[in-house]
Design brief:
Helices cover 43% and strands 16% of the residues. With 271 residues, the chain is of the alpha/beta class. α4 links the parallel β4 and β5. It is globular, with a radius of gyration of 18 Å. The protein binds nicotinamide-adenine-dinucleotide.
């Protein structure tokens, strides 16, 4: 398939997990990519794998929550490729606690990465779209895909910060779908259930990820994970490639007249 031939796609958090799978799926479909991740080594690794598909990859490493990130991210695409066709807001992590144990730091970190960073990136994209609209008539079809979660649709125990942020992503998506129809941009989101990544791996000990110098616990204890899998009608956790295909659909011409939609990719789990 060559659904994204010669398109320029920017994906945050594409050094691992769902973002990486989306980047490789896009590359297989002919897109050139701007890869981002907090961790530069994994971003470079994704870029190397992308180039094996005969397309180009540029890396814009760094923290999506940094105030100067959106400009740097879009500028990388424009400097290297001269165009922006697709933006996927995917970067993020979880930092759980029941509400009376949730600190302001935990709340702010999760709201910043999942909601404020996409808002700022899309605000920057909005400036670009307005400029383009002065000369590009009619405007080319462009795509935004935001990554949200079933936690943002139905809430989740211990995730008041994450569920609030991901719910905010739904509002942001639906609002920009209304604002950007006139620019020929579709704005959609995918709400994932459980997808096999380091966020959902079976916890063996006290695995952590280093995010902003803070050790964030990752993985799910076996008993909780097993219980969750029992609730999934398809009886299993999704593969990153399956997650990537749902993002591809919303980034491709196949979804040309779909905007403001939240696609649930959950193996049948309904919220
Ligand atoms: N895995 C799931 O079951 C699941 C379910 C619902 C939603 N999601 C969402 O999918 C997205 C991807 O998660 P994943 O499961 O692939 O996790 P992952 O940890 O495998 O990958 C996320 C990547 O984002 C990067 N990242 C984190 N914070 C960043 C920051 N501030 N700046 C730049 N990069 C940053 C990480 O370094 C990592 O490489 C997240 O938004 C997550 O909330 C995942």
């Amino acid at each position: 398939m060559n659904l994204l031939k010669n398109k320029i796609a920017l994906i945050t958090g594409s050094g691992r997990g769902i973002g990486k799978a989306a980047a490789l799926t896009f590359a297989r479909n002919g897109a050139n990519l701007v890869v981002n991740d907090l961790d530069e080594d994994v971003a470079n690794q994704t870029a190397e794998e992308i180039r094996k598909f005969g397309v180009e990859a540029a890396v814009c490493a760094g923290d999506v929550t940094a105030a100067d990130f959106p400009e740097r991210f879009l500028k990388t695409a424009l400097d290297v490729f001269g165009e922006i066709d697709i933006i996927v807001n995917n970067a993020g992590f979880t930092w759980d606690a029941i509400i009376y144990k949730m600190t302001d730091e935990m709340w702010d970190a999760i709201l910043n990465v999942h909601l404020k960073a996409p808002f700022r990136i899309l605000r920057e994209f909005g400036k670009y779209l307005r400029l383009k609209s002065e000369t590009e008539k009619p405007m080319n079809a462009r795509k935004v895909v935001n990554v949200t979660s079933v936690a943002g649709l139905g809430g989740n125990f211990g995730q008041s910060n994450y569920a609030s942020a991901k719910s905010g992503v739904v509002g942001l998506t639906k609002t920009l779908a209304k604002e950007w129809g006139r620019f020929n941009v579709t704005v959609n989101a995918v709400a994932f259930g459980a997808i096999e990544t380091r966020l959902t791996m079976e916890k063996e000990g006290n695995e952590t990820a280093d995010i902003h110098g803070i050790k964030i616990p990752i993985g799910i204890p076996k008993n909780v994970r097993d219980m969750f899998i029992k609730m999934i009608p398809m009886g299993r956790i999704g593969k990153p490639e399956e997650a990537a295909h749902s993002i591809l659909f919303l980034a491709s011409p196949l979804s040309g007249y779909i905007s403001g939609h939240i696609l649930e990719c959950t193996g049948g789990l309904v919220f």
